[in-house]
Design a protein that fits this description.
By secondary structure, the chain is α+β, with helices and mostly antiparallel strands. It has 8 helices and 15 strands. It is found in: Nucleus.
Length: about 350
């Protein structure tokens, strides 16, 4: 019996589902991808401001994010950055000339990511078989039999002819499939030969065994407010953000120069790993620092919030800060909670200087 990790569609988070189904585990959350989108927005804004507050820069800053929309659709840049940062895995457009040979022998690859009309899903090779992992389906679908990959080539040709964009997943540091029933609801591990009923189907006779644990479709809010802001990251009125549209041109230029100088002066401190008990369950956290950089922290489920804060303090010696976690990010105030009890497993942590 084959058991596979399979996330089903929630809101418009197919990008998150695509990555986790590709990697066969709950490696990315909506919050961690949203933080990557925000960091990319800030990098793009910094580049636009290198020549000062030009008309092009003002127009760019007035637009909504190109990396995530309010419903939770993530861009290819976000998905690529997430895979690259975490595992050194790259997504390459199959239409590039150097990928012609790879598409002629697709069975030599390990995975493909597919996109059309803001929907993402993947094809993944496991146990010498190819599977279509689409979050709109209740379970992965086998598209080849063991050792016979003729169905893969025809499937890819049909997808391309149907205007799907195919990205080749390249890299040799694929993580192993996540341990069953760790870090996600048990219903996310399925037997493709006996797919579970669709929980949204009113005619389904059997509900998910962990119905109470299944999350409701979230009302995803990436970055509230209109356009981009400086000083507060992704927009909205919180966190000291400044609405650029309400400032004069001189004030906008002064703030842009200040932002550029601050980003240039912020130091990046090498991370240090916590002492792990390799025999106990572990989790991987992404800590987003004040300068937009990310630190990867591997910890045990039993490490406490206080221990996490002490570890993060090594990234910015002498700096007072607070941490936020979860989605939407909330202050981590109970230092006695374990990472598991604080629901921080595989989550993104936000570092905020005091």
């Amino acid at each position: 019996m084959v058991i596979m990790y399979h996330e089903r569609q929630e809101a418009a988070l197919c990008g998150q589902h695509c990555l986790n189904n590709l990697l066969q585990g709950p490696y990315f959350s909506a919050s961690s991808l949203a933080q990557i989108a925000q960091a990319l927005d800030e990098q793009e804004a910094k580049l636009m401001l290198e020549a000062g507050m030009t008309s092009e820069a003002r127009a760019f800053l007035s637009q909504e994010s190109a990396n995530v929309d309010p419903s939770g659709n993530f861009s290819i840049q976000v998905l690529s950055t997430a895979l690259q940062n975490m595992f050194g895995i790259q997504l390459e457009d199959s239409r590039r000339p150097e990928n012609k040979n790879a598409m002629q022998r697709p069975d030599s690859q390990t995975g493909f990511v597919l996109n059309r009309h803001s929907h993402w899903y993947c094809l993944r090779k496991l146990d010498n078989q190819w599977w279509s992992c689409n979050s709109t389906q209740s379970a992965p679908e086998k598209i080849t039999s063991s050792g016979n990959f003729s169905g893969l080539a025809s499937t890819l040709r049909e997808l391309v002819s149907d205007n799907w964009t195919v990205f080749i997943v390249k890299g040799d540091k694929w993580p192993p499939p996540a341990p069953r029933n760790q870090g996600a609801p048990p219903s996310n591990w399925v037997d493709p030969a006996h797919p579970p009923p669709d929980p949204h189907d009113p005619h389904a006779e059997v509900a998910f065994s962990n119905k109470a644990a299944r999350r409701e479709d979230p009302k995803f809010t990436a970055f509230a407010g209109e356009g981009r802001t400086l000083g507060g990251g992704g927009g909205g009125s919180g966190g000291g953000a400044v609405d650029m549209s309400k400032l004069s041109e001189e004030e906008q230029l002064a703030m842009a120069l200040s932002l550029s100088q601050n980003l240039a002066q912020q130091a990046r401190v090498p991370s240090e790993a916590l002492v792990l008990d390799e025999g106990a369950p572990t989790t991987t956290l992404q800590v987003r620092m004040g300068d937009g950089s990310r630190k990867i922290v591997k910890a045990n489920h039993t490490h406490t919030v206080a221990q996490l804060k002490a570890h993060v303090a090594t990234f910015a010696p002498g700096v007072s800060f607070s941490l936020k976690g979860g989605f939407p990010p909330k202050p981590l105030e109970d230092d006695s909670l374990s990472l598991a009890d604080a629901k921080l497993l595989n989550e993104s942590i936000v570092f905020s200087p005091a």
